[in-house]
């Protein structure tokens, strides 16, 4: 019996040791540090979380020394504080996407929303950044009617990445609490955010998103930042069915952070420079054009 308990004790010690090794190894991984930015929505369908409102926090992505400043407004968006009601004569462009649009790894001033607002040459155009790290296509489909359409957008700019075919992960207060202390919980979250694809669900969510936008009378401009090649034809076909524009932007040439797939400050500036003429065309009522893939 004593030998049995010694074996159990050794196994528990090894598990705790592994857990803590993973905890310190994954201390600044995006999935772990995401916890400091989000609040659970309580929904039974995606999105299961959103950005906390009125944030003003330092945030690390991969490296502890690479600290960025994150602010959100009272609506839980990484955008300036503005009235929800759209002023007369103002046209609104809402950016939707994952950590690329959100601006993981760069300060507020270098995130895509601010950079596109800077590139705007027309008068009375507001750019809103509704990007959320970790979001997939099913999250965008749920976020659109609940958080974005109340902004009364005149144009939606949807950024898609290689991980947008993932199945969104349902989170709980208990699991978020474990992320504070458990490396195994962090490892599971990271693996979950990078595995578990559902291509049929992705196509259905994209179609649902575009249907919702069309029903609301809002045009959509899609720029695929890094969609897997096998999804190119499907993306183009679904977009064409709903009259959405898909533009390549030559995203592979955009500058990235050192050792990281996210856009650097130079990358977001260049993305904004390439996006603005396309945005302006759609705001002026031009017919959708596509050059993707």
Q: According to CATH, what is the class?
A: Alpha Beta
Tell me the fraction of residues in β-strands, as a range. Answer: 5-15%
Instruction: Give the fraction of residues assigned to helices.
Output: 25-40%
- Overall shape: it is globular
Largest sheet: 5 strands, parallel
What is the total number of structural domains?
Answer: 1
In the CATH hierarchy, what is the architecture at level 2?
A: 3-Layer(aba) Sandwich
Q: Radius of gyration from the CA trace?
A: 20 Å
Mean of residue pLDDT values: 87
What is the first-to-last residue Cα distance?
66 Å
CATH topology: Rossmann fold
SS element count, helices: 10
What does this structure look like?
The chain is of the alpha/beta class and 293 residues long. It has one domain (54-172, 195-283): SGNH hydrolase (Rossmann fold, 3-Layer(aba) Sandwich). The chain is 40% helix and 14% strand. The protein has 10 helices and 9 strands. Helix 5 (137-148) runs parallel beside helix 8 and helix 8 (199-215) runs parallel beside helix 9 (232-241).
What characteristics describe this protein?
two-stranded antiparallel sheet; 293 residues; Rossmann fold; alpha/beta; 10 helices
Q: Which secondary structure elements does this structure contain, and how are they paired or packed?
A:
Elements: H1 2-25, H2 30-33, E1 38-40, E2 49-51, E3 56-60, E4 67-71, E5 91-96, H3 99-102, H4 112-119, E6 125-129, H5 137-148, E7 155-160, H6 173-178, H7 183-194, H8 199-215, E8 220-224, H9 232-241, E9 245-246, H10 265-283
Parallel strand pairs: 5-6, 5-7, 7-8, 8-9
Antiparallel strand pairs: 1-2, 3-4
């Amino acid at each position: 019996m004593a030998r049995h308990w010694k074996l159990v004790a050794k196994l528990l010690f090894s598990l705790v040791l592994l857990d803590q090794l993973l905890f310190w190894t994954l201390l600044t991984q995006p999935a772990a540090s995401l916890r400091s930015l989000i609040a659970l929505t309580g929904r039974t369908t995606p999105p299961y979380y959103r950005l906390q409102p009125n944030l003003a926090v330092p945030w690390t992505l991969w490296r502890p020394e690479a600290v960025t400043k994150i602010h959100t407004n009272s609506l839980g968006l990484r955008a300036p504080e503005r009235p929800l009601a759209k002023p007369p004569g103002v046209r609104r462009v809402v950016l939707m996407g994952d950590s690329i649009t959100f601006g993981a790894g760069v300060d507020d001033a270098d995130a895509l929303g601010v950079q596109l607002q800077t590139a705007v040459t027309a008068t009375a155009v507001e750019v809103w950044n509704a990007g959320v790290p970790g979001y997939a296509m099913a999250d965008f489909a749920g976020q659109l009617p609940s958080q974005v359409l109340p902004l009364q957008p005149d144009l939606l700019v949807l950024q898609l990445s290689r991980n947008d075919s993932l199945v969104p992960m349902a989170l709980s207060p208990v699991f978020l609490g474990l992320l504070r202390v458990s490396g195994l919980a962090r490892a599971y979250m990271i693996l979950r955010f990078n595995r578990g694809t559902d291509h049929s669900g992705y196509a259905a969510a994209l179609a649902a998103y575009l249907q919702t936008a069309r029903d609301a009378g809002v045009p959509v401009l899609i720029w695929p930042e890094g969609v897997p090649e096998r999804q190119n034809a499907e993306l183009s076909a679904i977009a064409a069915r709903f009259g959405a524009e898909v533009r390549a932007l030559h995203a592979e040439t955009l500058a990235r952070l050192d050792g990281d797939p996210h856009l650097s400050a130079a990358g977001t500036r260049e993305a904004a420079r390439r996006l603005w003429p396309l945005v302006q065309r759609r705001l002026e009522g031009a017919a959708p054009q596509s050059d993707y893939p």
